[in-house]
Design brief:
The protein is α/β, with parallel strands linked by helices. Helix content is 40%, strand content 13%. The chain has 9 helices and 7 strands; from the N terminus they run αβααβαβαβαββααβα. It starts with a helix and ends with a helix.
Length: 262
């Protein structure tokens, strides 16, 4: 599957590279969208950066899962106790995923303390085996955020473990076809998008889903998540000949494979 066909898999057009000018054709009428799993350190990050791709997949008749490795509870404002804020985050995630038609699940490590080790990687591998996604989207490694760094590395190992036939677990082995990285303002170092997904059919629904989070509404800090990500979608739409779009970055190994297949 190349970058063009991945966009068709999602149900939208894509540029073949960040410098290309032509968009791909829409998905064939007889194509069947598959399953995407977004794996994120914090549920807000998942909805803001990966939620539109999940919503688009569901809109096109596919399925989607959001796996959060924490509740993001330590992002609470001083006026709200951490535990209470964690429950608010969980409720927001349930409402948001329900709105876009995706499943949600949690592996509840403490916020800011998500560990990168075999135990965490195996737990994510088990989730991959259980849900059997064709595509996984997660954090890019170019980040200053410890939880995001660890999530990136956990997913790297989990995809390997999930596909290892000789590793017995509760569920049988499952091979993920492609891994992509989401565009996040905190993970911007050396992030070079090469895949653009048209999200115009779900843009408003995605914004409504994000609005369940206090962070999106500007209640937890200085950063204007709403303005940033809604505007980013418009900007990425300009670059991909769409009205609104999200940009993803493919794994370097996948890009090498694409070149070999030309």
């Amino acid at each position: 599957m190349n970058r063009r066909s991945f966009a068709q898999f999602l149900g939208g057009p894509a540029l073949l590279s960040s410098a290309a000018a032509a968009a791909a054709a829409p998905a064939p009428a007889n194509s069947t969208p598959g399953k995407i799993m977004a794996i994120t350190a914090h549920p807000g990050d998942g909805l803001f950066t990966m939620g539109a791709a999940l919503a688009n997949q569901v809109e096109r008749g596919g399925t989607a899962v959001l796996l959060s490795l924490s509740l993001g509870e330590k992002g609470a404002p001083k006026s709200i106790p951490v535990n209470e804020y964690g429950e608010m985050q969980k409720t927001a995630t349930q409402k948001a995923t329900n709105l876009i038609g995706a499943q949600n699940m949690f592996i509840l490590y403490p916020d800011a303390e998500i560990p990168f080790n075999d135990e965490s990687s195996m737990r994510v591998a088990d989730a991959i085996r259980e849900h059997k996604p064709e595509i996984v989207i997660t954090h890019w490694k170019g980040t200053w955020h410890k939880d995001h760094q660890n999530c990136h590395m956990i997913v790297h190992d989990a995809v390997f473990y999930a596909g290892l036939d000789t590793l017995p677990r509760k569920y049988p082995a499952h091979t993920v076809s492609k891994v992509f990285f989401a565009e996040n303002w905190e993970d911007a170092e050396n992030f070079v998008p090469d895949t653009y997904v048209d999200i115009e059919p779900v843009y408003r629904k995605w914004l409504q889903a994000c609005d369940f989070y206090p962070m999106w509404r500007g209640q937890t800090g200085f950063f204007r998540y709403n303005d940033y990500y809604s505007s980013l979608a418009v900007m990425r739409g300009c670059l991909s000949a769409c009205k609104t779009a999200v940009a993803l970055m493919s794994d370097t190994a996948q890009r090498a494979q694409h070149l070999q297949s030309l």
